[in-house]
């Protein structure tokens, strides 16, 4: 496993669970709004990441304190060792979650039996996927992964980051399409931008418009969340 980061405790990244997050190194897509750009490269800046054995030792000491472990990134399914890591995590008694962009549909579907929950990123309307990711055919890869997740029977969330240049019309069009595909659980999340001092920037007026648009589309889903910066 190539691991670029580790969060020992989160209440946000695995709904309903106290969890640790393993940030897998490497992603073949180059979304310009990515919040984890250092994880896009195949190796860390210093060429060395965190050893999986160290994380396992940490987890073994957290029995009864943590509920689950989330594998995020980067793109976790780019890692050949992910399946084995998920099996080992479950063997330690933890629930397993995955954050993915659906880049490798076949690999993703091969992992369903080792997962309890999936968060799948819906980047944009399909016709904009290649522009957003910088990769031709990216939208079709997402479509296959979406179909697999919806049909898997697993708990899931489909989520979209309000990227730079996104419009309410475009995001509403994406939401309508996702609802027609059978998505029941959906979320919008604002892009987290830090100021020169490392504090989140808040555009309250603009965010209120997005929040209102989210209220308008929420009836299309069994559950909908808007995650703002405030």
From TrEMBL:
Swiss-Prot/TrEMBL keywords: 4Fe-4S, Iron, Iron-sulfur, Metal-binding, S-adenosyl-L-methionine
Record domain Radical SAM core: where: 22-177
Xref: InterPro entries: Aldolase_TIM, NrdG2, Organic_radical-activating, rSAM, rSAM_sf
Gene Ontology MF term list: 4 iron, 4 sulfur cluster binding; catalytic activity; metal ion binding
Leader sequence residues: none
Cofactor(s) demanded: [4Fe-4S] cluster
UniProt superkingdom: Bacteria
4Fe-4S is among the record's keywords: yes
Pfam families assigned to the protein according to its UniProt record, in alphabetical order: Radical_SAM (PF04055)
Name of this protein: Anaerobic ribonucleoside-triphosphate reductase activating protein
Organism of provenance: Acidihalobacter yilgarnensis
